[in-house]
Every structure is written in structure tokens, then in C-alpha cells.
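Sorry, I am new here, but would you mind making up a protein's amino acid sequence and the C-alpha cells describing how it folds?
***
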Amino acid sequence: MASHDHYYVPAQSKWPIIATLGLLITVYGLGTWFNDLKAGRPDSHGPLIFFVGGLCVAYMMFGWFGAVVRESRAGLYSPQLDRSFRWGMGWFIFSEVMFFVAFFGTLFYVRILAGPWLGGEGHKGVSHMLWPSFEFAWPLLNTPDPKLFPAARDVIDPWHLPLINTILLVSSSVTITLAHHALRKDHRSALKGWLGVTILLGIAFLTLQAYEYHEAYTELGLTLGSGIYGATFFMLTGFHGAHVTMGTLILIVMFARILRGHFSPDKHFGFEAASWYWHFVDVVWVGLFIFVYVL
């Protein structure tokens, strides 16, 4: 009969069901929220549904990951299960990569194909008959139908807040790497210091992005409804911001575990997985800075 030395099989758990329901409620609430915004219904229940779903997901993550931590601390996990965790985290990050590839693909399609076609270019330029006076240029500040999709007055200056945020995130990749090296050498004080700096850099990034969004809506007229440019801008940067928020929360949990004496130089996959995720959001931001803000 197999023992924990080979593979640990946990008991039946409620967490997968709670995770499924929480994600369903969250996505339904978000969809309702966006649809009601488009329809001009200010009394939408979408935000409330989205908030309830978010609470369910947070409860699931707190409970499920807490159970995993307790099992790991109890010595129930074998090297084979550790490899399973690594493969699982690797496939999860791959799925996140493909998630952003879809949005970058949308940006490419609009800028290289669909936009020029609407402006009368290329072999599919016959669609120019829809808006004969429309001339395509990116960023799209002159939409084909300004009444339906009012264009932004201007775009975000990439060499101001976006550049600062790029420096912050690239620096955070360095600090999380230094924290990882400190953990491998069992330098606990350096580990806490570098990880704390990484968390502060993540919080600073989110603060500046919130200020950037406020500036875009109030001063530039750049909103989620301001044509395809506004839609792709906020979908890409917004989903990335959500990932940075999640990554920052994960790092805070890692910091709390380190304060409690968790992890050792040869057994710290939880911290390692968090660092993988953080490097991933950093790389995505570099792509966003280049293809959304600069080019």
C-alpha cells in the first residue's frame, strides 16, 4: 500500500466546489456590471454580485491554501508531489501567458488588419464604404462613429507614469530575486528586507496606475467606452493590474509565513512559485509598455 513517501492523497475537500461557484458568481457579476454600464443603468446589481463572488474566491483561497500549508508543514508531501506542484504552477503560468497572448493578438489585429481595412486600405478595404471620410491612425483618436464611441482627447504619455511604473516593476524583479537568493542561503534578515521592498514596489505600482486611470478618465477622456483604443488599453492594463494585485497579495502572504519561520533553504516551493508569478507579471508589463504605450 502506498505511503506518504510516494504520494499523498488528501481527503475529500469542499474547496473545488467553492472555487467553481465563486468564479461563476464573479464572472457573472462582472459581465452584468459591464452590460449595465453600456446600457446606461446606474442601479446595476453587477458590482454587488462581483463583490460577493470576489469574497467567495478570497474565502476559498484562504481556506484551500491554508490547508495546503498545514499539510506541507506536517511533512505529508513527497518529492514526487513537489514535482507535481511545480508542473501545476508551470501550466498555470502558461495559461496566463496565453490569456494575455489573446489580448495582444486583438491589439495586433486591430492595428495591422481591421483598422486599415476600415480606412480603405488593403484587399479588404471595401469596408471603407461604411465610413467614407474615416482615416485610420493609431492611436485611434478619431473613431468612425464619434456619436456612438466618443474618442479620447489624448493618450497617456508613456514617458511619465508608465515609465516610472516600468522602473518600479523591473526593480521588483531584482529585489524578489535577491530575496530568493537570501532564502537559499538562509539569510532571514536579508530575505525579509528584500521581500518587503518588493511588496512596497508592487503597492507603489498599483497606486500610480490608479492615479493614471483617474487622469485618463477625468482629463483625457480616455475611457473603456472610447472606441477600440480605450477598450484595448483598459482591458490589457486592467487585467495586468489585477494580476499585480493578486501577486502583491501572494507576496504579503509569503512575508507573513516567513515571519512565522516557514520555509527552509532546500524546501520553499511556495515562495518559489510566488516569485515565478511575480516575474511573469513583470515581463507582461514590459510588453505592455512597449506595444500599448510606446508604439
The radius of gyration is 23 Å. Residues 29 and 49 are 5 Å apart (CA to CA). The chain has a mean pLDDT of 88.
